Amino acid sequence: MLRLPVSGLPVMFTQPTGFEDLLLQEARTLNTALALELIGRLASAPGHPPTTWAELTVTDIEALLLLLRREMLGDRVRGETRCCQAGCEAQVDISFGIDAYMKSHKARAPRKLEKTDRAGWFRLSGKGIEFRLPNGTDLIGVDSQKPELELTRCCVKPATVPAGARRQVEQAMEAMAPLLSRMLAGECPECHAAMEIYFDVQVFVLRELRNLAAGVYEDVHLLARHYKWAEEKILALPRGRRVRYAEMIRDEGAAA
Questions:
Q1: Cα separation of 87 and 191, whole Å?
Q2: Contact 87/78 with Cβ under 8 angstroms?
Q3: Which of 37, 60, 76, 161 could form a disulfide with 56 if both were Cys (CB 3.0 to 4.6 A apart)?
Q4: What is the Cα–Cα distance from 58 to 35, expressed in whole angstroms?
Q5: Which strand ranges, in their side-by-side order, compose the sheet holding 130-132?
Q6: String of DSSP letters for the chain
Q7: How crowded is the C-beta side of 78, counted as CA atoms within 13 Å?
Q8: Which of 128, 152, 112, 16 is nearest to 71 (CA)?
Q9: pTM of this structure
Q10: pLDDT tens digits, 154-187
């Protein structure tokens, strides 16, 4: 059973259908609303009441996306970028395992932290500053031009705090819920320049899952023409079964 790193919630995934494939293909942006819609359709928490996924911390939502990606495409993440060193521009390959990556960013309880009377809120000992961890609803609601300011307003009381205290709050948040979207250190294989590459979990995973779903239109076309099934019936099939039927039709055509 998979468990989320902050809440400890157990999760399971169901196989996507054509409806989820269309959701990914026809989305205008790879944003938090899309991520939560996909999670809501495919994830469940066995033995727990129905979950409002948007109430989970940002870290748990990122973990859900990575775990879903592991279920669909395996543990190994692979990507590439270009060296930004002047005159180089060599291709730099990026590769790591999701399980190892998540284990290297485990949540921990910081010192000098107190719980408050409000569920999910904490207080820095002796500081009079309270905070909670940002969640999915916060991300959907923030102004994309000033996200840090908006999140502070939602999650820290009072919203205006001294710079030193704010750093303490940020350190406490990072310890309790370390973000999985972060800078990755690397080295160019050609010029050996040190590199930092930002890994955006949400964009990376949703893009990969959208690419995986790209065959849905052709599959529906083939199955509708061959079996005379309605679009809705085809879209309701689990992706693996739909793809297998489409492959059989293509094989028959190749053998003819």
A1: 10
A2: no
A3: 60
A4: 11
A5: 113-115, 121-124, 130-132, 156-157
A6: -EE-TTT--EEEEPPPBHHHHHHHHH-SS--HHHHHHHHHHHEE-TTSPPP-GGGSBHHHHHHHHHHHHHHHH-SEEEEEEE--STTT--EEEEEEEHHHHHHTT---PPSSEEE-SSTTEEEETTT--EEE--BHHHHHHS-TTSHHHHHHHHHEESS---HHHHHHHHHHHHHHS--SSEEEEEE-TTT--EEEEEE-HHHHHHHHHHHHTTTHHHHHHHHHHHH---HHHHHTSBHHHHHHHHHHHHHHHHH-
A7: 5
A8: 16
A9: 0.92
A10: 899 987 888 888 899 999 999 999 999 999 988 8
- Range from 63-67, 129-133, 185-189 that averages highest in pLDDT: 63-67
Dihedral sign from CA coordinates of 107, 112, 116, 121 = negative
- Using CA atoms, how far apart are residues 114 and 133, in angstroms rounded to an integer? 14
Instruction: Extract the tokens encoding 182.
Output: 């972060």
* CA gap 62, 136 in Å, rounded: 10
